[in-house]
Design a protein that fits this description.
With 493 residues, this protein is mostly helical. The protein has 18 helices and no strands. 74% of the residues lie in helices and 0% in strands. Keywords: Membrane, Transmembrane, Transmembrane helix.
Length: 493
């Protein structure tokens, strides 16, 4: 019993244990409900899973099931980011502990009972517990904002290498605070439409109403909530990666004000879709996205320069080839920054191109094609965020040698293969007619299946290894359980 207690303490009190539990829960959910997808239906797997597990899936309730499924995954991702923030950014121990407890209980409650309500009959007590879980997560977000309060004198910056005001206010901490605060507000932005269920508001998927000439304010709120929450998850992850890589110097001093400005303007643009600003809301969003993307670019430049300098430290005048080898020598440090760059080709660039040429090109296509672009756009962004977290986690748990290289390059190459194939699939009508599309469609969908399938295999191997390690009396988990987070050392100092 004592040994079980040690393991539970590791899993639910240490940073690495909490992240491992959240990744495992997301992986299990993805694996299980992925068996209900279209390709699995064609193979007969979907019907077998439904019958074996006793699921109740009414076609008319499909949209509601998908919304709960995606929300439970998103809550676990937000929990992972919260664990990393509390590990990397100094705050009072009360807020650190309270935030972790609340968000852990919250996302697990929402996930377990939300999915139970959506897929195994409508036990309304389960739905109530799902809402309780979301409420706990929201309250954890409020406490996180308080814990991150950047005007606390205890967190003034004295090192000139980091961005700060004349009075010493840490601008990176301000960026964390602004992102956390707007995430909490944007959660309300999505919760308000949910409060109107059974009162003239019906469940829908954003991609299904995109061509409706008139939309209600609540529909706009749901669409805005979807966009801004994904964007804020990406922005917060960018700040986390910067903290991990010790982002500093002149680029840091330029990037942090840009990130703060971009976050605030981006949110104002999205919130504006339900106000008289709606006609120009997209222009405000573009204005906000630009400085945030520039800040991310500066992080990429800093990180890659750091990798090159470290890898060529003993070379007086390194050649281009030596610099490239130095840049690529560690996939777990190179990968997150590369994924941010690659995202511009598969997400940001595609989104901007579609928006600019919407009426001239894409609204001339059948609505199904535009719907494919929208769903692919959101899914690729979500999946890129997931790969960055996995790469960071690999470094966090100390993978070394050939295992580190295989794990890192496997995630990078196979995921990017899938994302590139999805991008081609989204925009295929630009290069091939509907009558001649089938060979291209067959090829890119096969590449998507291979790429994502291999990423899932890598993740499965990682989780199996971690599970086996938990059965060892003195496994790696015992070392991780006793490690101190950087934020705790900062507060003690």
């Amino acid at each position: 019993m004592r040994e079980l207690g040690r393991r539970l303490e590791y899993l639910f009190s240490s940073t690495k244990g909490l992240i491992l539990v959240a990744i495992a829960m997301i992986a299990l959910e993805t694996a299980l409900f992925g068996l209900l997808s279209g390709p699995m239906a064609d193979l007969g797997v979907r019907d077998w899973v439904i019958k074996t597990l006793g699921m109740r899936l009414l076609p008319a309730e499909r949209e509601g099931r998908i919304i709960i499924l995606y929300h439970t995954i998103a809550m676990a991702v937000i929990a992972i980011e919260t664990y990393l923030i509390t590990a990397l950014v100094g705050m009072a121990s009360f807020y650190r502990t309270a935030v972790r407890v609340l968000i852990t209980v919250g996302y697990l409650t929402a996930m377990i009972f939300g999915l139970g309500f959506a897929y195994w009959g409508h036990n309304w007590a389960f739905h109530g517990l799902y809402l309780v879980g979301l409420t706990l997560i929201f309250f954890a977000g409020v406490l996180l904002c308080i814990g991150l309060w950047p005007w606390n004198k205890a967190y003034r910056v004295r090192d000139p290498a980091y961005a700060h005001t004349r009075s010493g206010i840490d601008l990176e901490r301000v960026a964390f605070f602004a992102t956390a605060l707007t995430t909490v507000i944007s959660a309300i932005f999505g919760a308000v439409p949910g409060a109107y269920y059974a009162n003239g508001f019906q469940t829908f998927l954003a991609e299904d109403i995109i061509r409706l000439p008139e939309k209600t304010g609540l529909q706009y709120a749901v669409i805005g909530h979807l966009h801004i929450m994904l964007a804020l998850i990406a922005i917060m992850l960018t700040l986390i990666i910067g903290r991990w890589l010790d982002f500093k110097g002149i680029l840091h001093k330029i990037a942090m004000p840009l990130m703060i400005l971009g976050t605030l303007v981006l949110n104002l643009g999205v919130w504006g879709v339900v106000t008289p600003l709606e006609p120009i809301a997209h222009m405000i969003i573009y204005v906000g996205a630009t400085p945030a993307m520039l800040a991310a670019l500066m992080l990429v430049i800093f990180g890659w320069d750091q990798l090159i300098r470290e890898g060529t430290r003993d070379v007086p005048k390194p050649s281009a080839g030596q610099k490239l080898r130095a840049l690529l020598r560690d996939p777990l440090r190179f990968g997150p920054l590369w994924q941010m760059v690659f995202m511009n080709f598969t997400v940001s660039g595609v989104g901007i191109f579609v928006a600019v040429r919407l009426d001239e090109i894409f609204r001339q296509w059948p609505s199904r094609e535009e719907r494919l672009i929208l769903t692919g756009h959101w899914h690729v962004l979500s999946a890129i965020i997931a790969t960055i977290i996995l790469l960071y986690y690999g470094d966090l748990i100390g993978l070394k040698g050939w295992v580190r290289r295989l794990y890192g390059w496997g995630i990078i190459l196979f995921s990017d293969l899938a994302f590139a194939a999805v991008t081609v699939y989204e925009l295929k009508r630009l290069v091939v007619s509907e009558a001649r599309q089938q060979p291209l469609v067959n090829t890119v969908l096969l590449l998507v299946d291979i790429g994502l399938g291999m990423v899932l295999v890598i993740l499965a191997l990682l989780l199996i290894w971690r599970l086996l390690d938990l059965f060892r009396r003195e496994g790696r988990w015992t070392v991780e359980a006793n490690q101190t987070d950087p934020a705790e050392m900062e507060v003690k100092a």
